[in-house]
Automatic annotation (TrEMBL), chain A:
Keywords: Cell inner membrane, Cell membrane, Membrane, Phosphate transport, Transmembrane, Transmembrane helix, Transport. The keyword Glycoprotein does not apply. GO terms for molecular function: phosphate transmembrane transporter activity. It comes from the Bacteria. This is Phosphate transport system permease protein. InterPro entries: MetI-like, MetI-like_sf, Phosphate_PstC, PstC_N.
From TrEMBL, chain B:
The keyword Nucleotide-binding applies. It is found in: Cell inner membrane. It comes from Cognatiyoonia sediminum. It comes from the Bacteria. Gene3D superfamilies: P-loop containing nucleotide triphosphate hydrolases. The lineage of its organism: Bacteria, Pseudomonadati, Pseudomonadota, Alphaproteobacteria, Rhodobacterales. Residues 19-261 form the ABC transporter domain. Pfam families: ABC_tran. GO terms for molecular function: ATP binding; ATP hydrolysis activity; phosphate transmembrane transporter activity. This is Phosphate ABC transporter ATP-binding protein, PhoT family. The keyword Lipid metabolism does not apply. SUPFAM superfamilies: P-loop containing nucleoside triphosphate hydrolases. GO terms for cellular component: plasma membrane. PROSITE patterns: ABC_TRANSPORTER_1 (PS00211), ABC_TRANSPORTER_2 (PS50893).
Amino acid sequence: MPNTILILIVLALGVIGFVLGRQRAMASAGGNSRNLHSLPSYYGYNVACATTLPAMGLLILWLLVQPLIINSSVSGLVSDQASEEGASLDLIMSDVRRVADGLDTAVETGVLTEEEVEALDAEQDDIRDLLAGVGFALGSDVTPSTLEAAKSYRAMNEVGDTWKSVFVIATALTGLLVSWRMTNKDFRARNVVEQGVLAILIFAASIAILTTLGIVLSLIFNTMEFFRLYPASEFFFGLSWNPSFSGRGGGSELGILPLLWGTLYISLIALIVAVPIGLFAAIYLSEYASKPVRSVAKPLLEVLAGIPTIVYGLFALLTVGPLLVEVFGQKGFLGVDWMSGGTAVMTAGLVMGIMLIPFVSSLSDDIINAVPQSMRDGSLGLGATHSETVRQVILPAALPGIVGAILLAASRAIGETMIVVLGAGAAARLSMNPFEAMTTVTAKIVSQLTGDSDFSSPEALVAFALGITLFVITLGLNIFALYIVRKYREQYE
Amino acid sequence: MEDLAYMDRQMSTEQDIKISAKNVQVYYADNHAIKDVNVDIADKTVTAFIGPSGCGKSTFLRCINRMNDTIDVCRVEGAIKIDGEDIYDKRVDPVQLRAKVGMVFQKPNPFPKSIYDNVAYGPRIHGLAKNRAELDDIVEKALRRGAIWDEVKDRLDAPGTGLSGGQQQRLCIARAVATEPQVLLMDEPCSALDPIATAQVEELIDELRQNYSVVIVTHSMQQAARVSQKTAFFHLGNLVEYDDTDKIFTNPEDERTESYISGRIG
């Protein structure tokens, strides 16, 4: 029975349970809902929840566990073949699943009957042709053991699916019956439904948390795998980034320092651009601008935050890079020959700085607005001018919050990818010259994983090590920023 | 004692007029908040503004040092003169004016700086001290005048926000005094304080009268009676009655004043 129909049956049982539970409650109260502990529909919800939630939970669990069990028992059948041919077990198992899917389709479309599938013999029948006929192209001929494995895979799946349907529907019916029997006018259905709501909320929250946990764990395991193939000390302290894709694992230099340097250098330039401009814009908007100006200027500034970073990347590549070459390049405006190509740390840094302006300005704006009006009054009342007030009272009072905003902007700059790919070039380099091309951790993660790559080689796995390094850095910055912002909040509330 | 206090008041009424307001109108956008107020405030006197909430007494107070300029929709008409000089004249710099007319606010608002820097803020901005020693002198004098020196002299580097509410308010008074103003405006300075801190601040106000003209807005009629020599009663934006404090509280001329004082309106 397909899962969709199973789910629909459970839901239908839930609806029936709702109606029955409500009726029973009303009947036990003699038709007068005032005699009930809870509103009538709470009894209905109670029965509906007891019917659907355990059944759905069982279904999810079954769907997670069944493939694991079947995979492990089927792979026992083909492990001999795997060791004979030296091919990996994963590849053979994916062949098995594909053949099984093909046979399923063949049966469904009526090309074969179940009996004919049972009678198939890899030696005599050309299964590859047969499956190609129903739209399943296989990479190689089907060996007898693969076919047998596919057959038992199908059989086990069929048995599992049948039991799954039986158990899920049985659970739903049991839940319905038990909760229906419990329903009477003194039953505290309202409190039980409250628990049900709590359970749903906890479920939603734990999905978010478990996903994060899963991502972190997958990063950690893959990183450990990488460090088995490549020494950690060379990764963290190596001065050169030079991966080779030709020889597997041989001759690659995978030092993170040039990438980290590029990341920090570009982020630094971005912050040097974004912090003063963003801060001054925030001061203007929150302290000086009149209401009409503010109501137009603030959304306009925040539009900058809505531009996709790839568009900033184009802007860097096509406009800012050539412009900088015209100023700093050979035969340029200044007559100095510092810059040879449009892609450089400076290009990416400037454009990234522009991207960060709305980030800094809108956070700082909120923080400056949170400084109590009484501070301004106090300073103005002593005969200070507006800018003296801003400089000597408001900014010091808002400083912790502004530092928090800057740190959050910094962690965005460190994680930025597209602007760097297009604006800063791809050469990993340790250099002080901001007009040279460099690259960052994120850009290198992209280039290590795109194109044909074998996911078990150190050249691909290094991406996970780079990712977790970046994750730790930005996480640290975010925690530090939140700590500072929170400390500041306590001061005035 | 009674006689002495009476003589005090007699003297004060005979003193020079420090602030003189003629036909003052204040509008917040379309709302006519102050209607045709005329008042002469004497030097070296405590003048109390009383009246129900929203009657315009704080608004009028804020006109005297042009703090209302910071509110966009606020418009002031008429003439307010300090020492015969119209403060709403185009040639007058409101920033300079506010150095001359200090203000203490309803809620204590020390800056998030050290106690020393709080008091030194005004003198530094206006360049009142030539060197550190002079500044130290000014700070000490102001803190003594604010009757808080003994409590904070050992921790001048501690943040001003760490003091208790009453101490904070006295620090704010010291801060206002440090710029050597000629007039001190106080907008309900005791409304956030407990009775003990209130008594300390009231005592302080009485001392400050020797050097400044003090104008205080208050919701407490007892406080007005205790600290002021002259009282003005505002109602619905009008100045209803302005006279010696004794007369206002014992024998008011207007029946609205009487109703307010006896608690029937407000």
